[in-house]
Amino acid sequence: MEFTIRAATLEDCKDISRMILSRCELAEYEKVSDQVKIAQRDLEQDGFSKNPFFHGIIAEVPEHLKSKEGHTKVGYSLYFYTYSSWKGRAVYMEDLYVMPEFRGKCIGKALMSKVSQLGLAAGCTQLNFTVLDWNKSSLDFYLKLGCWDVTSDLGYHCMRCEGDVLEHLAQGDL
Amino acid sequence: MASFILRKAEPKDVSDILRLIKELAKFEEMEDQVILTEKDLLEDGFGDHPFYHCIVADVPKQHQSADSHVIIGFAMYYFTYDPWIGKLLYLEDFYVMKEFRGFGIGSEILKKLSQMAVRTRCSSMHFIVAEWNKPSIDFYKRRGASDLSLEEGWRLFKIDKQNLLKMTNEE
Protein backbone atom coordinates (compact mmCIF):
# COMPACT_ATOMS: atom_id res chain seq x y z
CA MET A 1 0.00 0.00 0.00
CA GLU A 2 1.18 3.52 -0.77
CA PHE A 3 1.91 5.61 2.31
CA THR A 4 4.36 8.22 3.61
CA ILE A 5 5.92 8.67 7.04
CA ARG A 6 6.68 12.23 8.09
CA ALA A 7 7.20 14.42 11.16
CA ALA A 8 3.98 15.51 12.85
CA THR A 9 3.06 19.20 12.77
CA LEU A 10 0.74 21.33 14.91
CA GLU A 11 -2.03 20.76 12.38
CA ASP A 12 -1.80 16.99 12.93
CA CYS A 13 -2.83 17.23 16.58
CA LYS A 14 -6.51 16.98 15.66
CA ASP A 15 -5.92 13.62 13.95
CA ILE A 16 -3.53 12.42 16.64
CA SER A 17 -6.18 13.20 19.24
CA ARG A 18 -8.79 11.37 17.14
CA MET A 19 -6.59 8.28 16.93
CA ILE A 20 -5.73 8.39 20.67
CA LEU A 21 -9.46 8.38 21.48
CA SER A 22 -10.27 5.55 19.05
CA ARG A 23 -7.40 3.56 20.52
CA CYS A 24 -8.95 3.99 23.95
CA GLU A 25 -12.35 2.93 22.60
CA LEU A 26 -10.77 -0.11 20.93
CA ALA A 27 -9.28 -1.10 24.26
CA GLU A 28 -12.90 -1.24 25.41
CA TYR A 29 -12.64 1.13 28.30
CA GLU A 30 -16.17 1.97 29.33
CA LYS A 31 -15.62 5.64 29.86
CA VAL A 32 -13.05 7.08 27.52
CA SER A 33 -13.29 10.44 29.27
CA ASP A 34 -12.22 8.81 32.54
CA GLN A 35 -9.01 7.56 30.92
CA VAL A 36 -8.02 10.28 28.46
CA LYS A 37 -7.42 13.65 30.12
CA ILE A 38 -5.44 15.09 27.24
CA ALA A 39 -7.25 17.12 24.58
CA GLN A 40 -6.09 18.42 21.21
CA ARG A 41 -4.95 21.75 22.70
CA ASP A 42 -2.82 19.92 25.32
CA LEU A 43 -1.07 17.97 22.56
CA GLU A 44 -0.47 21.24 20.69
CA GLN A 45 1.04 22.89 23.76
CA ASP A 46 3.00 19.91 25.04
CA GLY A 47 4.35 18.74 21.68
CA PHE A 48 4.90 21.91 19.70
CA SER A 49 6.16 24.59 22.06
CA LYS A 50 9.79 25.65 22.53
CA ASN A 51 10.60 22.71 24.83
CA PRO A 52 8.36 19.87 23.65
CA PHE A 53 7.64 16.91 25.93
CA PHE A 54 7.23 14.58 22.98
CA HIS A 55 7.72 14.32 19.22
CA GLY A 56 5.38 12.73 16.71
CA ILE A 57 5.46 11.05 13.35
CA ILE A 58 2.45 10.46 11.12
CA ALA A 59 1.63 7.79 8.53
CA GLU A 60 -0.39 9.28 5.71
CA VAL A 61 -2.06 7.70 2.68
CA PRO A 62 -2.97 9.49 -0.59
CA GLU A 63 -6.52 10.82 -0.97
CA HIS A 64 -7.68 7.89 -3.12
CA LEU A 65 -6.80 5.43 -0.33
CA LYS A 66 -8.42 7.39 2.50
CA SER A 67 -10.33 5.59 5.28
CA LYS A 68 -14.08 4.90 5.25
CA GLU A 69 -14.64 8.14 7.22
CA GLY A 70 -12.39 10.13 4.88
CA HIS A 71 -9.13 10.26 6.90
CA THR A 72 -5.73 10.24 5.19
CA LYS A 73 -3.75 10.29 8.43
CA VAL A 74 -3.96 6.63 9.40
CA GLY A 75 -1.24 6.00 11.95
CA TYR A 76 1.13 7.75 14.32
CA SER A 77 3.91 7.28 16.81
CA LEU A 78 4.74 9.51 19.77
CA TYR A 79 8.26 9.32 21.17
CA PHE A 80 10.67 11.26 23.36
CA TYR A 81 14.27 11.11 24.47
CA THR A 82 15.19 9.53 27.77
CA TYR A 83 18.45 8.62 29.48
CA SER A 84 19.94 5.41 30.74
CA SER A 85 22.32 5.89 33.66
CA TRP A 86 24.24 2.89 32.28
CA LYS A 87 24.34 3.62 28.56
CA GLY A 88 23.32 7.22 28.02
CA ARG A 89 20.92 8.60 25.41
CA ALA A 90 17.86 6.51 24.67
CA VAL A 91 14.59 6.95 22.82
CA TYR A 92 11.24 5.89 24.24
CA MET A 93 8.38 4.99 21.92
CA GLU A 94 5.29 5.95 23.91
CA ASP A 95 2.60 5.17 21.34
CA LEU A 96 2.50 3.24 18.08
CA TYR A 97 -0.88 3.02 16.40
CA VAL A 98 -2.30 2.20 13.00
CA MET A 99 -6.05 2.39 12.30
CA PRO A 100 -7.45 -1.18 12.13
CA GLU A 101 -8.44 -0.96 8.43
CA PHE A 102 -4.83 -0.09 7.52
CA ARG A 103 -3.08 -2.86 9.44
CA GLY A 104 -1.09 -5.67 7.87
CA LYS A 105 0.55 -3.31 5.33
CA CYS A 106 3.86 -2.69 7.15
CA ILE A 107 2.83 0.79 8.27
CA GLY A 108 3.50 -0.04 11.94
CA LYS A 109 6.93 -1.37 11.11
CA ALA A 110 7.68 1.73 9.01
CA LEU A 111 6.67 4.02 11.89
CA MET A 112 8.86 2.10 14.32
CA SER A 113 11.74 2.11 11.86
CA LYS A 114 11.47 5.89 11.55
CA VAL A 115 11.58 6.33 15.34
CA SER A 116 14.67 4.08 15.38
CA GLN A 117 16.36 6.15 12.65
CA LEU A 118 15.64 9.39 14.48
CA GLY A 119 16.87 7.90 17.74
CA LEU A 120 20.11 6.63 16.18
CA ALA A 121 20.65 10.04 14.53
CA ALA A 122 20.31 11.66 17.98
CA GLY A 123 22.99 9.38 19.40
CA CYS A 124 20.70 6.93 21.18
CA THR A 125 21.87 3.38 21.81
CA GLN A 126 18.51 1.85 22.66
CA LEU A 127 14.80 2.12 22.04
CA ASN A 128 12.44 1.33 24.93
CA PHE A 129 8.68 0.89 25.13
CA THR A 130 6.09 -1.09 27.10
CA VAL A 131 3.66 -3.78 25.97
CA LEU A 132 0.75 -5.29 27.87
CA ASP A 133 1.28 -8.94 28.71
CA TRP A 134 -2.04 -10.06 27.19
CA ASN A 135 -1.24 -8.45 23.83
CA LYS A 136 0.19 -11.58 22.22
CA SER A 137 0.27 -10.28 18.63
CA SER A 138 2.27 -7.20 19.70
CA LEU A 139 4.59 -9.27 21.91
CA ASP A 140 5.30 -11.61 18.97
CA PHE A 141 5.80 -8.67 16.56
CA TYR A 142 8.38 -7.04 18.81
CA LEU A 143 10.21 -10.22 19.79
CA LYS A 144 10.62 -11.06 16.08
CA LEU A 145 12.27 -7.64 15.56
CA GLY A 146 14.97 -8.52 18.07
CA CYS A 147 13.49 -6.76 21.11
CA TRP A 148 13.76 -8.31 24.50
CA ASP A 149 11.41 -8.31 27.42
CA VAL A 150 13.26 -6.61 30.29
CA THR A 151 10.42 -7.29 32.75
CA SER A 152 10.48 -11.00 32.01
CA ASP A 153 14.24 -11.42 31.68
CA LEU A 154 15.54 -9.12 34.43
CA GLY A 155 12.46 -8.86 36.62
CA TYR A 156 12.17 -5.08 36.30
CA HIS A 157 8.70 -3.87 37.20
CA CYS A 158 7.17 -0.58 36.02
CA MET A 159 6.07 1.44 39.05
CA ARG A 160 3.94 4.54 39.44
CA CYS A 161 3.15 7.17 42.08
CA GLU A 162 0.23 9.28 40.92
CA GLY A 163 -2.62 11.49 42.09
CA ASP A 164 -3.06 11.48 45.88
CA VAL A 165 0.03 9.34 46.36
CA LEU A 166 2.15 11.95 44.56
CA GLU A 167 0.54 14.78 46.56
CA HIS A 168 1.27 13.03 49.87
CA LEU A 169 4.86 12.40 48.85
CA ALA A 170 5.24 16.08 48.00
CA GLN A 171 3.93 17.00 51.44
CA GLY A 172 6.31 14.60 53.10
CA ASP A 173 3.56 12.31 54.41
CA LEU A 174 4.41 8.64 54.76
CA MET B 1 24.60 12.74 61.23
CA ALA B 2 22.87 16.06 61.38
CA SER B 3 22.98 17.99 58.20
CA PHE B 4 22.80 17.53 54.50
CA ILE B 5 21.56 19.67 51.65
CA LEU B 6 19.83 18.67 48.46
CA ARG B 7 20.74 20.75 45.45
CA LYS B 8 20.63 20.75 41.69
CA ALA B 9 23.70 18.99 40.25
CA GLU B 10 26.34 21.13 38.60
CA PRO B 11 28.91 20.24 35.91
CA LYS B 12 31.57 19.74 38.62
CA ASP B 13 29.45 16.92 40.10
CA VAL B 14 29.69 14.53 37.11
CA SER B 15 32.56 12.57 38.61
CA ASP B 16 30.54 11.91 41.80
CA ILE B 17 27.37 11.16 39.81
CA LEU B 18 29.22 8.52 37.78
CA ARG B 19 30.74 7.05 40.95
CA LEU B 20 27.28 6.72 42.52
CA ILE B 21 25.78 5.30 39.29
CA LYS B 22 28.46 2.60 39.35
CA GLU B 23 27.88 1.89 43.05
CA LEU B 24 24.17 1.40 42.43
CA ALA B 25 24.86 -0.77 39.35
CA LYS B 26 27.27 -2.87 41.45
CA PHE B 27 24.51 -3.45 44.01
CA GLU B 28 22.26 -4.59 41.11
CA GLU B 29 25.14 -6.82 39.90
CA MET B 30 25.22 -4.87 36.65
CA GLU B 31 28.44 -2.89 37.08
CA ASP B 32 29.86 -4.14 33.76
CA GLN B 33 26.80 -2.69 31.96
CA VAL B 34 27.78 0.90 32.78
CA ILE B 35 29.50 2.33 29.71
CA LEU B 36 28.57 5.95 30.38
CA THR B 37 31.53 8.33 30.86
CA GLU B 38 31.95 11.68 32.66
CA LYS B 39 32.14 13.30 29.24
CA ASP B 40 28.73 11.83 28.29
CA LEU B 41 27.20 13.02 31.56
CA LEU B 42 28.60 16.52 31.03
CA GLU B 43 27.44 16.80 27.43
CA ASP B 44 24.04 15.21 28.01
CA GLY B 45 23.13 16.87 31.29
CA PHE B 46 24.45 20.40 31.04
CA GLY B 47 23.97 21.50 27.44
CA ASP B 48 21.13 23.48 25.84
CA HIS B 49 18.74 20.53 25.74
CA PRO B 50 19.62 18.25 28.65
CA PHE B 51 18.60 14.61 28.41
CA TYR B 52 18.44 14.32 32.19
CA HIS B 53 18.37 16.33 35.42
CA CYS B 54 20.03 15.47 38.68
CA ILE B 55 19.68 16.28 42.37
CA VAL B 56 22.61 15.52 44.66
CA ALA B 57 22.81 15.12 48.45
CA ASP B 58 25.77 17.04 49.84
CA VAL B 59 27.10 16.65 53.41
CA PRO B 60 29.53 19.01 55.19
CA LYS B 61 33.21 18.03 55.06
CA GLN B 62 33.23 16.91 58.69
CA HIS B 63 30.61 14.26 57.81
CA GLN B 64 32.25 13.04 54.62
CA SER B 65 32.14 9.32 53.79
CA ALA B 66 34.79 6.81 54.84
CA ASP B 67 36.43 7.30 51.44
CA SER B 68 36.24 11.11 51.69
CA HIS B 69 33.19 11.93 49.57
CA VAL B 70 30.74 14.71 50.37
CA ILE B 71 28.28 13.88 47.57
CA ILE B 72 26.63 10.86 49.16
CA GLY B 73 23.35 10.46 47.27
CA PHE B 74 21.66 11.41 44.01
CA ALA B 75 18.58 11.14 41.89
CA MET B 76 18.58 11.28 38.10
CA TYR B 77 15.27 12.08 36.42
CA TYR B 78 13.68 13.44 33.25
CA PHE B 79 10.24 14.34 31.94
CA THR B 80 8.22 11.93 29.85
CA TYR B 81 4.72 11.98 28.35
CA ASP B 82 1.61 9.85 28.33
CA PRO B 83 -0.86 11.01 25.63
CA TRP B 84 -3.79 10.04 27.89
CA ILE B 85 -2.70 11.90 31.04
CA GLY B 86 0.08 14.27 29.99
CA LYS B 87 3.45 15.03 31.55
CA LEU B 88 5.18 12.58 33.85
CA LEU B 89 8.36 12.67 35.87
CA TYR B 90 10.52 9.59 35.31
CA LEU B 91 12.95 8.64 38.04
CA GLU B 92 15.88 6.92 36.32
CA ASP B 93 18.20 6.39 39.30
CA PHE B 94 17.88 7.03 43.02
CA TYR B 95 20.62 6.10 45.47
CA VAL B 96 22.05 6.97 48.87
CA MET B 97 25.40 5.53 49.95
CA LYS B 98 24.97 2.72 52.49
CA GLU B 99 26.71 4.50 55.38
CA PHE B 100 24.29 7.45 55.01
CA ARG B 101 21.03 5.52 55.07
CA GLY B 102 18.50 5.75 57.86
CA PHE B 103 18.79 9.55 58.21
CA GLY B 104 15.83 10.45 56.02
CA ILE B 105 17.96 11.51 53.06
CA GLY B 106 16.18 9.17 50.63
CA SER B 107 12.78 10.35 51.86
CA GLU B 108 13.81 13.99 51.41
CA ILE B 109 15.02 13.31 47.87
CA LEU B 110 11.75 11.63 47.00
CA LYS B 111 9.80 14.49 48.57
CA LYS B 112 11.76 17.06 46.54
CA LEU B 113 11.16 15.09 43.33
CA SER B 114 7.45 14.81 44.07
CA GLN B 115 7.22 18.54 44.77
CA MET B 116 8.89 19.21 41.45
CA ALA B 117 6.49 16.82 39.71
CA VAL B 118 3.48 18.59 41.23
CA ARG B 119 4.92 22.05 40.49
CA THR B 120 5.51 21.18 36.82
CA ARG B 121 2.00 19.71 36.56
CA CYS B 122 3.08 16.11 36.11
CA SER B 123 0.27 13.61 36.66
CA SER B 124 2.54 10.91 37.95
CA MET B 125 6.07 9.83 38.79
CA HIS B 126 7.22 6.59 37.14
CA PHE B 127 10.27 4.40 37.72
CA ILE B 128 11.31 0.74 37.61
CA VAL B 129 12.31 -1.56 40.42
CA ALA B 130 13.79 -5.05 40.20
CA GLU B 131 11.38 -7.60 41.65
CA TRP B 132 14.11 -9.12 43.82
CA ASN B 133 14.92 -5.74 45.42
CA LYS B 134 12.65 -6.18 48.44
CA PRO B 135 13.95 -3.20 50.52
CA SER B 136 13.30 -0.82 47.60
CA ILE B 137 9.91 -2.32 46.81
CA ASP B 138 8.91 -1.95 50.49
CA PHE B 139 10.22 1.64 50.55
CA TYR B 140 8.06 2.56 47.56
CA LYS B 141 5.01 0.51 48.51
CA ARG B 142 4.98 2.18 51.97
CA ARG B 143 4.65 5.46 50.09
CA GLY B 144 1.72 4.26 47.98
CA ALA B 145 3.48 3.29 44.74
CA SER B 146 1.63 0.84 42.47
CA ASP B 147 3.31 -1.94 40.54
CA LEU B 148 2.03 -1.51 36.97
CA SER B 149 3.68 -4.73 35.81
CA LEU B 150 1.81 -6.79 38.40
CA GLU B 151 -1.44 -4.81 38.47
CA GLU B 152 -1.91 -3.99 34.79
CA GLY B 153 0.46 -6.37 33.02
CA TRP B 154 2.91 -3.80 31.64
CA ARG B 155 6.20 -5.22 30.41
CA LEU B 156 9.23 -3.07 29.60
CA PHE B 157 10.83 -3.88 26.26
CA LYS B 158 14.15 -2.85 24.86
CA ILE B 159 15.89 -2.97 21.46
CA ASP B 160 19.62 -2.41 21.44
CA LYS B 161 21.63 -0.47 18.85
CA GLN B 162 22.56 -3.51 16.79
CA ASN B 163 18.94 -4.48 16.23
CA LEU B 164 17.91 -0.86 15.70
CA LEU B 165 20.43 -0.60 12.85
CA LYS B 166 19.18 -3.88 11.43
CA MET B 167 15.61 -2.60 11.48
CA THR B 168 16.45 0.71 9.83
CA ASN B 169 18.54 -0.99 7.16
CA GLU B 170 15.72 -3.30 6.24
CA GLU B 171 13.49 -0.39 5.19
Automatic annotation (TrEMBL), chain A:
Residues 27-174 form the N-acetyltransferase domain. GO terms for molecular function: N-acetyltransferase activity. InterPro entries: Acyl_CoA_acyltransferase, Diverse_Substrate_AcTransf, GNAT_dom. Keywords: Acyltransferase, Transferase. CDD domains: NAT_SF. This is Diamine acetyltransferase 2-like. Pfam families: Acetyltransf_1 (PF00583). The gene is LOC107702052. The keyword Isomerase does not apply. Signal peptide: none annotated. Belongs to the acetyltransferase family. The keyword Secreted does not apply. Coiled coil: none annotated.
From TrEMBL, chain B:
It is found in: Cytoplasm. It is an enzyme of class 2 (transferase). The keyword Nucleus does not apply. Pfam families: Acetyltransf_1 (PF00583). One of its GO terms (biological process) is spermidine acetylation. It catalyses: spermidine + acetyl-CoA = N(1)-acetylspermidine + CoA + H(+); spermine + acetyl-CoA = N(1)-acetylspermine + CoA + H(+); an alkane-alpha,omega-diamine + acetyl-CoA = an N-acetylalkane-alpha,omega-diamine + CoA + H(+). Pathway: Amine and polyamine degradation; putrescine degradation; N-acetylputrescine from putrescine: step 1/1. GO terms for cellular component: cytoplasm. Its main location: cytoplasm. One of its GO terms (molecular function) is diamine N-acetyltransferase activity. Keywords: Acyltransferase, Cytoplasm, Transferase. Its EC number is 2.3.1.57. Residues 4-166 form the N-acetyltransferase domain. Homodimer. Belongs to the acetyltransferase family. This is Diamine acetyltransferase 1. It comes from Sinocyclocheilus anshuiensis. The gene is LOC107665519.
